[in-house]
Q: What sequence folds into this?
């Protein structure tokens, strides 16, 4: 009798599981495959391989309350679960593969004080300074070129249940702050890696953290954003929420750029994923406009909001299915604003347009008045670049006619002082071109130099660095094999360059490092680079972290991060592709994220801390 009941129960479970699999497969084919199975792997959307390495819980949260919620808003709870189960091969009943014991990872009690922290060694925010130079002077780095070859891993921290580690850490006052796709902000001891506190966020965090005092109080706060366009201020010592503010109501909006704190005001860039959601033929593409929002750092209250496209979208034409289309749209701001105290201005770099008519402020450098948000000037690098993911897909219904090359800016402009005492805004573009503009003459072009072929994934992607004389630029030019497998080309892409700030001439060049027989590998250098006196650090899609001498490109240090780690927080850890954020150098240590499961890269989930090995 019991055996019969068991058999019946097993049969029911199997039939339910098969039915759920069929439902998930059908939903995926009708609503997801267009983007996630797009013919070109450069389509900016995680492919099936990347989805399959994610946890069930992560995918379910994403389509329930995360960045894909708008796409799944007509689905029932059971349908969402079936979809998450189909793409991950897991179910809600599966035990988490990366559970952690937070109590065992916690630091022993220690007094927390930030007195003098802003004068001590630190890497604060995205670019280490409000010029976004990504250059760490020696008094902050405390790492000489002679010590770099002796770097070794001191500790590894694992982000549970995710396949990417793409939020750059901030280090200040002996603490390290880092967000993650695990929907948490982690405050760690910078030297030991143990956990001081964690704060649960509403959505995954891709931004770095900006640290600073709260006016009128004795508190210090950390400021950051998430992929649902929420911005947070959290007490740096305790992890208690001070305020939370949504800076854009559009359902596709997100904050990927690190907010910048200046004189009690927090400046926030806003981007979106409407490039992907707008690719559905039934979607009224497109209505999002990039923006910059100024908030009172103490209260979160809005001071001003300025759109990158001044005019709101209007109805234009209908697509071949009769869906109403809108424009102009797009011009997201993916990167941190740059502050010009001298001119009381703020500079941002924008992405492509999403629909026609293309905006003349897309793929451009924009200047805003710090106090009012009034646009002072704009300078476009690539005109007529209207583009959505559908342009790479099988169904190109919503792809703009005469679409552009998707050559937006993904990095922050660097405000640099030239040797002749003039100034320049220097920035590299996904087109493969490095530009210099005059911030004191309405962005007048000073020079431009091509260092790569360019493409949807670069050219140059996430960040360059600059010292007193040079800008250091990593080239992606990632390519995929044309054999129908969507595999990375192990021999295409890469290269690191130093260009003179004065005239853009290439003064140092490091050739690409091919992958050989390594799986899921590309020599592309997509991640942001970072520099200290005499040294430039660059992470590769191959998973290697390397450091080079700036005068001659000589290799000083090389480490393969794509390996297993025993982590300080007990999470099974594995490194992978290095993409997005760049190395952080501070107080004799180097911190780098490893793991990027998108674009066919090697997934991973670790933050690594390197120290100098004793002789």
A:
């Amino acid at each position: 009798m019991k055996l019969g009941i068991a058999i019946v129960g097993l049969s029911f479970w199997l039939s339910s599981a098969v039915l759920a699999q069929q439902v998930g497969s059908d939903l995926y084919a009708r609503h997801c495959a267009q983007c996630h199975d797009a013919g070109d792997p450069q389509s900016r959307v995680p492919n099936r391989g990347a989805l399959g390495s994610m946890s069930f819980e992560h995918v379910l949260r994403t389509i329930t309350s995360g960045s894909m919620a708008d796409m799944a808003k007509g689905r029932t709870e059971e349908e969402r679960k079936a979809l998450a189960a189909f793409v991950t091969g897991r179910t809600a009943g599966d035990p988490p593969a990366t559970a952690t014991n937070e109590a065992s990872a916690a630091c022993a009690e220690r007094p927390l004080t930030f007195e003098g922290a802003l004068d001590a060694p630190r890497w604060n925010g995205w670019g280490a300074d409000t010029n976004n130079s990504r250059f760490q002077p020696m008094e902050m780095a405390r790492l000489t070129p002679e010590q770099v070859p002796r770097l070794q891993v001191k500790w590894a921290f694992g982000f549970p249940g995710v396949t990417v580690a793409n939020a750059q850490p901030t280090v200040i006052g002996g603490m390290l702050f880092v967000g993650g796709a695990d929907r948490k902000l982690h405050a760690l001891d910078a030297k030991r890696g143990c956990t001081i506190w964690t704060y649960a966020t509403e959505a995954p965090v891709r931004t770095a953290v900006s640290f600073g005092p709260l006016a009128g109080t004795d508190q210090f706060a950390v400021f950051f954003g998430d992929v649902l366009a929420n911005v947070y201020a959290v007490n740096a010592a305790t992890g208690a929420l001070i305020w939370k503010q949504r800076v854009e109501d559009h359902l596709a909006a997100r904050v990927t750029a690190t907010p910048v704190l200046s004189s009690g005001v927090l400046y926030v860039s806003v981007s979106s994923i409407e490039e992907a959601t707008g690719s559905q033929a039934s979607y009224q593409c497109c209505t999002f406009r990039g923006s910059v929002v100024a908030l009172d750092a103490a209260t979160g209250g809005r001071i001003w909001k300025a759109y990158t496209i001044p005019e709101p979208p209007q109805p234009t034409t209908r697509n071949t299915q009769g869906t109403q289309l809108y424009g102009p749209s797009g011009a997201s701001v993916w990167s941190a604003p740059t502050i010009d105290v001298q001119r009381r201005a703020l500079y941002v770099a924008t992405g492509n347009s999403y629909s026609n008519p293309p905006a003349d402020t897309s793929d451009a450098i924009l200047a805003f008045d710090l106090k009012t948000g009034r646009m002072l000037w704009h300078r476009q690098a690539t005109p007529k670049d209207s583009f959505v993911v559908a342009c790479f897909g099988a169904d190109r219904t919503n792809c703009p006619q005469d679409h552009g090359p998707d050559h937006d800016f993904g990095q922050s402009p660097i405000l640099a002082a030239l040797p002749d005492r003039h100034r320049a805004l220097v920035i590299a573009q996904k087109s493969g071109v490095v530009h210099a503009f005059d911030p004191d003459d309405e962005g007048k072009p000073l020079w431009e130099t091509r260092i790569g072929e360019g493409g949807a994934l670069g050219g140059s992607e996430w960040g360059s660095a600059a010292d007193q004389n040079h800008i250091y630029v990593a080239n992606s030019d990632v390519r995929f094999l044309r054999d129908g497998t969507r595999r990375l080309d192990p021999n295409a892409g890469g290269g690191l360059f130093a260009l003179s700030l004065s005239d853009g001439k290439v003064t140092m060049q490091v050739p690409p490092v091919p992958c050989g027989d390594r799986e899921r590998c590309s020599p592309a250098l997509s991640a942001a680079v970072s520099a200290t006196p005499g040294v430039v650090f660059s992470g590769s899609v191959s998973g290697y972290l390397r450091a080079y001498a700036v005068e001659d490109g000589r290799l000083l240090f090389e480490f393969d991060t794509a390996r297993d780690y025993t982590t300080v927080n007990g999470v099974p850890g594995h490194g992978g592709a290095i993409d997005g954020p760049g190395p952080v150098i501070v107080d004799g240590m180097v911190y780098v994220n490893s793991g990027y499961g998108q674009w066919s890269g090697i997934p991973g989930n670790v933050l690594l801390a390197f120290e100098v090995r004793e002789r």
Q: What stands out?
A: Residues 1-15, 39-43, 95-99 have pLDDT under 50 and may be disordered. The longest helix spans residues 2-31. Residues 298 and 506 are 44 Å apart (CA to CA). The first strand starts at residue 151 and ends at 158.
